[in-house]
Design goal:
single chain; 2-enoyl-CoA Hydratase, Chain A, domain 1; alpha+beta; 4-stranded antiparallel beta sheet; disordered N terminus
């Protein structure tokens, strides 16, 4: 069995997306979170070497060569999905030699990496990189996703320029810089190597994307059919990942988790011990959970599944593998895990990915929970260590494949909920959460069915 050290159960989209993929419905879409932040470091081929400058042709080629070689040596699939990776080097290296700036070089690197058809493997220029625990992203202050076939605003940041301009959740984006928004989506899908539901989600979620400190002009349609237009600036923003708990009417607990991290596990442990007394059922909201630390996810799974339940297997390019299982004792907090036998509902969306999908599969397979929402991302690969490029940029490489305990790959295969609830425009305008309503109704049904004399 291979080493388990520094496993990342990651989701691909956070780092590629604007706030449309990050803050939609006040939650985060697929992103990268490290396994152990206190020991997790970027790896460099020569960490003592001076930082290379991409202002020179030689420097840009050094960065290109380092990125290509790192992927060549560490990518989990030796066959690169049938792609001739040597040929990619030949093609793109000559183009890299012709780039004239760091921005052009990194754009080219992303084009080469896109040929892998793997959104988990991605590259960040020095100014773009950030701590996995504190995602950093470029945003205009609103989130967009596909609703009823149209690019629709699903969340607007408080006191942001779009909010002051009168944009509301539910409004439809008509044009972006004068181009019909739907045509921009169509062009992204034409160029996509993966015409999947996840690719479609990204095409809608990232239509506002652009470099920081630039602006975008949009025209939108309001609820009453009138239109508005304005120009908004793109700016860097940062968000901390966390866990939130509230009680719904009827005494049902809702636990919303942005990711699986050690601090979130510690918060979750506290919730189990102190805040679920008298609760009739639990709803875990993973609609914005992009994955994270496999051990943290296993701790949470252990609270509902008990000890010794297999959560699947990770395998690297050499064939070395290891399994992840639930445990009676926390893998991160070094204490016994509190067990919960309360009725359980899990909420999912297209943003639910990676380690969150592993958890959902286990809960679904064991029939421990009912899954409500929409299909998940189908994005389950893992990364051991971030690779530091010679100029200070960062490269994430998919180093581990994943299979369930039954031998099923989740990468490229979304998980279907037990009951599907699709967001509608009227829901956004009214602030209605029909998936949550259905979850509470199901918990009430389960409680009534188990009541004496029922």
């Amino acid at each position: 069995m291979g080493k388990r050290k520094n496993l990342l159960c990651l989701s691909p989209v956070l780092w590629q997306a604007s706030i449309a993929a990050i803050a939609a419905l006040l939650s985060i879409f697929p992103f990268s979170v490290s396994l152990a932040p206190n020991v997790f470091k970027a790896h460099a081929a020569n960490p003592d070497a001076a930082v290379v400058s991409t202002s020179t042709r030689e420097g840009r080629l050094a960065v290109f060569d380092d990125a290509w070689s790192a992927i060549n040596e560490r990518y989990y699939d030796r066959r690169f999905h049938g792609l001739d990776w040597d040929a990619q080097r030949t093609t793109f290296r000559s183009l890299a030699a012709e780039t004239s700036s760091s921005a052009e070089l990194y754009s080219l690197l992303r084009r080469m990496i896109a040929s892998l058809n793997d959104p988990h493997t991605r590259v960040f220029a020095p100014e773009e990189k950030s701590d996995w625990w504190h995602p950093r992203f470029v945003s205009i202050g609103l989130a967009v996703r596909e609703v009823e076939g149209l690019p629709t605003v699903v969340q607007v940041e408080h006191d942001s320029a779009p909010q002051r301009a009168g944009i509301r959740a539910g409004d439809v984006i008509e044009t972006i810089n004068g181009r019909p928004a739907l045509s921009l989506v169509a062009s992204r899908l034409i160029n996509s190597l993966t015409p999947t539901a996840t690719a479609r989600f990204r095409a809608f979620a990232t239509i506002m994307d652009g470099p920081a400190e630039t602006s975008v002009e949009i025209r939108w349609k309001k609820k009453d059919g009138s239109e508005g237009s304005a120009q908004f600036g793109r700016h860097w923003q940062q968000r901390d990942l966390g866990l939130r708990v509230r009680r719904e009417k009827g005494n049902y607990a809702v636990i919303e988790m942005d990711a699986f991290t050690q601090p979130i596990v510690l918060s979750f442990t506290s919730v189990l011990k102190e805040k679920l007394k008298g609760v009739r059922g639990v709803i875990i909201d993973l609609r914005g959970n992009g994955g994270g630390d496999a051990d943290a996810m296993a701790d949470i799974a252990s609270a509902f599944l008990g000890e010794g339940f297999s959560l699947g297997q990770f395998t690297d390019r050499s064939g070395s593998s290891f399994t992840v299982s639930t445990s009676a004792k926390s893998l991160l907090a070094s204490e016994k895990i509190t067990q919960s036998r309360l009725p359980l509902i899990v909420l999912t969306s297209e943003r639910t990915s990676s380690a969150a999908e592993i958890l959902i599969t286990a809960l679904k397979t064991s029939r421990r929970a009912t899954i409500i929402g929409t299909e998940t991302c189908g994005c389950v690969l893992a990364i051991r260590t971030r690779h530091l490029l010679p100029d200070g940029g960062l490269l994430d490489i998919s180093e581990l494949d994943y299979q369930t305990s039954a031998g099923t790959r989740l990468e490229g295969h979304s998980i279907k909920p037990d009951e599907t609830v699709v967001v509608e425009r009227n829901d956004l305008y009214s602030g209605r959460d029909r998936a949550m309503e259905l979850a509470i109704a199901r918990l009430k049904f389960l409680r009534n069915r188990s009541a004496p004399g029922s």
